Amino acid sequence: MKRKLVAVGMVLSILLIGIGTADAASKKSGSVTIVGPWRDAEATVFQKVLTAFTKKTGIKVTYSGVADPNILISTRLAAGSPPDMAIIPNAKGLPEFVKSQAVKPLDFMAKDLKSNFAASWNKLYTYSGKTYGFATRADIREMLWYNPTSVPNPPKTWAEFAALCDKTSKPACTSGMAKDAWPLDALWTTVYLSTNGAQKYADLYAGKIPFDDPSVLKAMGRFTQFYGDKWAAGGTQGALGGGLMDGLGRVFGDSPDALFAGAGSWGGATVLDSVNKTLVPFKTIDYLLFPGDKPNSNAVVATGDVAVVLKSNANSQALAKYLASAEGEKIFTENGYTVANKTVSTAGMTGFISKTAKILSKATVASAVYSTEFQNKWIEVLGQIALDPTNAQSILKGFAPTAASLLKQ
Amino acid sequence: MQNMVQRIRASVAGITMVIPAILVASAFLIYPIFYTIRLSFAKSESFAANGFVGLTNYERLFHDPAVLKMSWPPDGALINTFKWLLLGVPGCLIVGMIVALVADRRRFQSVIRAAFFLPMVLSGTVLGTIFTFVYSPNAKVGLLNAIFGTQISWLGNVNLVNYAVITAWAWAATGLSVIIIAAALKGIPEEINEAARLDGANSKQLFWHITLPSIKMPLVFLITTQLVQVLKVFDVVYVMTQGGPAGKSNTLALMFFQETFSSLNPQYGAAIVVFMSAIIVAVYLLARRLGREK
Fold this sequence. Notes:
The structure holds 2 protein chains of 2 kinds.
Chain A: H1 2-25, E1 31-36, H2 40-57, E2 60-65, H3 69-78, E3 85-88, H4 94-99, H5 110-116, H6 119-124, E4 126-127, E5 130-131, E6 134-140, E7 143-146, H7 158-167, E8 172-175, H8 182-196, H9 198-205, H10 214-226, H11 235-241, H12 244-252, E9 258-263, H13 267-275, E10 286-288, E11 299-309, H14 314-323, H15 326-334, H16 351-362, E12 364-366, H17 372-387, H18 392-408
Parallel strand pairs in A: 1-2, 1-3, 8-9, 11-12
Antiparallel strand pairs in A: 3-11, 4-5, 6-11, 7-9, 7-10
Helix pairs in contact in A: 2-14, 2-15, 8-9, 8-10, 8-17, 12-13, 17-18
Chain B: H1 2-39, H2 56-63, H3 77-103, H4 109-117, H5 124-134, H6 143-148, H7 161-186, H8 190-198, H9 203-214, H10 216-231, H11 235-240, H12 252-262, H13 266-292
């Protein structure tokens, strides 16, 4: 009797194992690790994307959100254990990672990249004929956020903007938040583009135009006015010493003392979430693109949070393809973020997302990817010029050779 | 013969017991030091110490205006690091001494000491975040500007930024001075002070001729510890200013971080940290030597 029971038990076990294996064979197993810059609310949204991916493929994803993913990537590369994938904010450091072969080319998804992204986006992340990344989320890098009740007739050109700023002193015209340094570069790129156009923008960052060119000086004049003592709340020092929330609070807080704050397309969500929840989109909070010489110049500096692959295997390739797909990217747009993927429909979008998505889909998109070393040095120069605008020309002349050598790398 | 065998056995036992500590120290201290020095002479563009470029990275360091700009007044991360040295350490020491003396042998001395010690438990990141708000140029947000009714940009003014950041650090670091000096004061026998007072010594004379010499060793320890802390300060500066505005509050430690992990130049970063370590060792040895002199 005992032997019969053991035999039945063994047969049942074999059957169960067989069923389990057959079931598992219909999905992949394994896991992927990915690091990125998104935390808190942004991480929650990204987790939805990853959960949908896991549900579809069976591949588990472990996501680590950190303030500066590049540092984590660098140290883990040095330790010999890089994550499988990473999201690099604004492609910062991508040229260095490509040069050191830390990131792998995305040859396995060349067709997806071609069909899902505009050529201009793919070109940004292509080196020596190979594409190394794609933009998961995309933003307009800088626009001017304002309260329509304080600025009922928003300026359409630089001349109108300057006239408005010259007229107002209480409240101040602009609110700087340059304490964290990166807003200096964000504003600069937007000012240069709106002043000189997309072609010159591309030429400047390709090293074809020197950094002491008259076009740079012209844009620098506007840049220094934005941060100048006359226009900026608290003067230049107030603008350079104020942080992000300070700057947004000056325009949208309980006692506003400035009319415009420069921030990316993420600015609206940040203000509504953390500065003033009573504001109503388009009624008491809105944005305009940085005005150029002509109205509706329709050129924007766009940035993308770039997905890259550090360890190319079946699982990381599957995740990369999913993140580049309309199915994966749609989850971002459903949760209030804009994407560069042209196959994601803008129908059904509302609020600032709708406005931004329409601009991104129609505008001439300018962007540039340069080394972090260049960006760090350039930001320092921008700070020097903001503090000493009368010496802008000589400072730029001193920096031009450094820029030329760093942009060529 | 038997004695020699016993001595050898005792030596072997002792060595066996310290081997784990030696292994740990080698893995986490000695090897990284040598690797970093080697990296500062390396050619490769990753964290691998491959190739050899001689003193190229050090030449770059000594010619880098971000490190030292020979203008008037001189500028650069090295100058800022020395500002920290000359202001941060004496500041903590003097305030700590005053508080410890005032609180010594008085009622509520433990409350006073605890009040000064508590900020020490804050991490540099938290400290930096708190003081970023304290120093906000917007009087509706910044505590200092709200109190004085001003609109000073403490972190945006190139003439004030270093002093503002040093003050924030010193506010938290003073607690260590208070605790160590207070403990040292407790070790001075009261009879010595009484005898001196009977001989006609006033408070000033008591302080200079009895108190200070009596607490010399703890002071030397305190100074050398804080010197080393100040020379490698990073987190407070990173959070509050990231070296700005326009690099005016940059320090060697922050430059090392930016070059290594942000600009991805680990070889140059290694040269900076080797240079910084040389300064720390030199300052430490000088402080110890001065402390030993009579």
